[in-house]
Amino acid sequence: MNLNALIETSGEWLRGGGPESDIVVSSRIRLARNLAQFPFPIRASDAVKAEVSELLCNRLLDLDFGPQLYSLDVGDLNEVDRQFLVERQLISRELSDGVGPRCVCISREENLSVMVNEEDHLRVQVLHSGFSLGDTWSQISELDDNIEQHVTYAFSDRFGYLTSCPTNCGTGIRVSVMLHLPALVLTKEIQKVFQALQKISLAVRGLYGEGSQAMGDFYQVSNQVTLGKSEQQIIENVQEVIPNIIAYERRVRNKLVSENRRNLHDQIARAYGILRNAQTISSEETMHLLSSVRMGVNLGLIDELEMATVNEMLIQTQPAHLQKLRGEDLQSAERNVARASYLRERLTGDFTG
Amino acid sequence: MNLNALIETSGEWLRGGGPESDIVVSSRIRLARNLAQFPFPIRASDAVKAEVSELLCNRLLDLDFGPQLYSLDVGDLNEVDRQFLVERQLISRELSDGVGPRCVCISREENLSVMVNEEDHLRVQVLHSGFSLGDTWSQISELDDNIEQHVTYAFSDRFGYLTSCPTNCGTGIRVSVMLHLPALVLTKEIQKVFQALQKISLAVRGLYGEGSQAMGDFYQVSNQVTLGKSEQQIIENVQEVIPNIIAYERRVRNKLVSENRRNLHDQIARAYGILRNAQTISSEETMHLLSSVRMGVNLGLIDELEMATVNEMLIQTQPAHLQKLRGEDLQSAERNVARASYLRERLTGDFTG
């Protein structure tokens, strides 16, 4: 698979469709699995990892299941290409920065990705746009069953699926929903959401998962417990709480519009103005401003922009994407200039300087 | 004269022509004069002031001199109209806020204005765009001679022209040049200019003269001494120093362009973007951003804008101008919205909200 082909398209999950897509960017489920016959990656030699990688890659590419998968040998990729896959949420930082034989199998639409030799032998992921945990679960469950027909998973009757880290043991499932909550952040109500989620053992993380900062008002809500509950129960836990957060964000947006429309519009219009005019801009500021613009599109305060375009710009302005788009390595200051050019081109059709 | 007619036009001095107009906005000379036969305004009763006002108004309107003058009874004007004249630099804050009979005679082109019963009986002013103290002096000198043919000025062989405040005594002249010095402000080199001017007894003030803050990087340089030197010497003092400040500002602009073009362009482009998109904006921020845009026009970093438009916007976005344009009294928050609308309309042709 040619990585450069990916830059021309954007993953299905970015196209901005799906239920509640004004607030829910994407729904994601991942399963941690290991093969019974091999030491887990954290204990395996490179030779064993190579064997596992080859075996799993072959099995995955041969699956008689929905979309065709393509494999990428992550160890063969340069740093920019690896970072590019991280930015697209197709691989984790851990797989990107890891050592030894490791690969990822991806579907053309980018909904499916299976990492091999990350922390576990297999990290199976399905990603959909909008709030659609049901579809996401159906697809990952089917994929998981298909894989299990060709390999033997490490499974204990007592502990369930066995994983490198005990926190993933049991179902091995992580259910995450990526939310865009600008109004709750603006009004500082977001703290109440964090507290409520903590009480029911749900975690809140930034755009790029564990350890990442929340940027541009994007938050991932996910389960922490994987043991002692069924997959359905865990999904339901998340599924039940998300509509409350959506309703809360909508309520606060409506309140802002009805009580302070002018200032809200001002903030959004200025953000849009800066994005269309800046000559150099950091990734952080871009996320921050695009977040305002995204809310503006949702509230009908910006007419001429599609949500899908905003979502795409959020990813395309990340460092590795910019470098792939430009076809050259760029230092941080050069990226800031390239980012500003890209934004002006996308938002005004003007491509100067 | 109908004040509303003025709003449709802009004074000659705003049209952005004249020598060195990239840096010198305008050249201004004013003369303080009093009539020998009447107590000075600070000691005069309202009856005397009324007599002086009528007498001088009649004389001024009858002058057989260049442009026809029109008179405005300042005491008759409401607060917005008075503030409007202050913003156009046709009258001083002192005349606007004063009490008792007082008036101003103005030429249609707004180059000439004669205040009656400000601190002195007469404050004669000539204002030209760009750096043109020579023309300004010729015109005010001719006007002064013309007036003197019809009245007797209070004059002492020892002290020269007598004035209410001793600091104006002698020549009664104030020569001011309004400079736009954004690069010197940006690099903090402006402090050196202040120090140098102080040493040669020249004063630096903001846009609206004495006591006003420098806004948007606009500074008025003027003489402090009026006694013991001839008018020509005083004008020469200012005339000689201004080219050095112009050269200094140009040098620093060129340095910024050659060493840090990207960041300078970024600052200017963002300012332009905010002005074209904001939904509410204060007078202070507007001045600040227009200052960047003005430099951008001069440096060729903004193509589609005329300097005259920028100069005009600096005045038209002032509180009283906005209210005259809208034809209604507006509170501060309403003015901020009206100002943003006006700027969007002027800069993008878009007039919504």
Automatic annotation (TrEMBL), chains A, B:
A Pfam family assignment: ATP-gua_Ptrans
One Gene Ontology CC term in the entry: extracellular space
Keyword ATP-binding carried by entry: yes
Annotated binding of ATP, by residue: 26-30, 123, 174-178, 205-210
Record's keyword annotation contains Kinase: yes
EC number assigned by the record: 2.7.14.1
UniProt domain Phosphagen kinase C-terminal: residue ranges: 23-252
Major enzyme class: transferase
PANTHER family on file: ARGININE KINASE 1-RELATED, ARGININE OR CREATINE KINASE
Functional description taken from the UniProt entry: Catalyzes the specific phosphorylation of arginine residues in proteins.
Family assignment from sequence similarity: Belongs to the ATP:guanido phosphotransferase family.
Protein name: Protein-arginine kinase
Organism of provenance: Stratiformator vulcanicus
